[in-house]
Recover the amino acids of this structure.
């Protein structure tokens, strides 16, 4: 049986129930740890699940920051230094990733608190997560304020990508499932995946087939 | 073995290889069919995978439209009427969803071409997908141009949510896996999910546990 909830009904939900409902509603999401460092050298690590693809030429992506949350250390470091890393999460480190969401004081590095290891590569200023298998170095391009609720959209470009060599297909496809990357739903639900298939390019007058 | 690709190396990739690489890199994504109707009554249905949560109060989300693609009929209908539906995809209809990405002429409804059924509810102008199990009615709030590559960010509010009653937990959590909602990666890879666990709220000095 299906139930329809109007926006009035949703707004009448108890606050925490509504947050859980809306956060879990939108679909499965990407999951990544953002690594940053302040100019004074304080590192920070935070889990995000709002990444979205923006373009391939130049390679651009975006994500959403909520300024009223633990995200704020990440945001201030990105605005201060212009750079950050994006580190994908696999089954062995998902509890660690979740733990970075705890409200630690500014002087605590979530790398230490969540038992993950800082890694520095190719003179990039921001720290990577050593335990992660797919990692991106990125630079801030644009910060857009969303007036309706005070959230902020960060638009960024990809500086470099580090990836296990055996996870890249002959057509350029990055096989995240092979790398063990997991997905999440809502604020606390973590999921592995199982491929149904890759489908052939969609054209009128044919029907897609598994590749 | 890991390989690091710099932005110069990525920009030197063959165009289609680069698009596949960057599109598949960012993580697992939400997957939904957006249903629209022009003022003159022409329906349109298109698959999108760039949804992101923006806020729970008011309930807001966003997605990215690439104006040089088949997305343009969706965009013009949303700008013309202000409303659209978001319909989640399960295993039985993922080939249908993929097929909506074919470049049909304006006068062809992808509902017909991809063998899905228009559904109208509660006097909402835009068509739902009858076969979908979780569906959202939404209204346009804001259109933001992303100058770097001509893409457009649509910010929208949720008007209503239709959902199987047995997929909502006592805390408001919407169990998408129970509803059969699938996830995708890149432009053509479709995946079911298997929950590892939901983890307890992250707090300093404790370690997250499965709920």
């Amino acid at each position: 049986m299906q139930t329809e909830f109007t926006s009035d009904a949703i707004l009448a939900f108890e606050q925490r129930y509504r947050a859980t409902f809306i956060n879990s509603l939108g679909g499965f999401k990407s999951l990544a740890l953002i690594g940053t460092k302040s100019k004074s050298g304080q590192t920070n690590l935070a889990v995000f699940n709002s990444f979205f693809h923006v373009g391939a030429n130049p390679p651009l992506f975006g994500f959403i920051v909520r300024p009223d949350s633990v995200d704020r250390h990440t945001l201030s470091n990105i605005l201060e230094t212009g750079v950050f890393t994006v580190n994908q999460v696999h089954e062995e480190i998902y509890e660690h990733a979740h733990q970075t969401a705890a409200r630690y004081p500014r002087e605590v590095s979530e790398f230490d608190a969540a038992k993950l290891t800082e890694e520095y590569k190719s003179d990039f200023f921001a720290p990577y997560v050593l335990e992660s298998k797919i990692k991106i170095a990125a630079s801030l391009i644009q910060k857009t304020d969303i007036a309706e609720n005070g959230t902020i959209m960060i638009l960024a470009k990809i500086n470099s990508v580090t990836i296990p060599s055996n996870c890249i297909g002959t057509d350029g496809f990055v096989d995240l499932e092979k790398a063990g990357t997991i997905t999440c739903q809502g604020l606390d639900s973590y999921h592995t995946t199982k491929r149904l298939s890759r489908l052939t390019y969609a054209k009128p007058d044919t029907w897609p087939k598994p590749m």
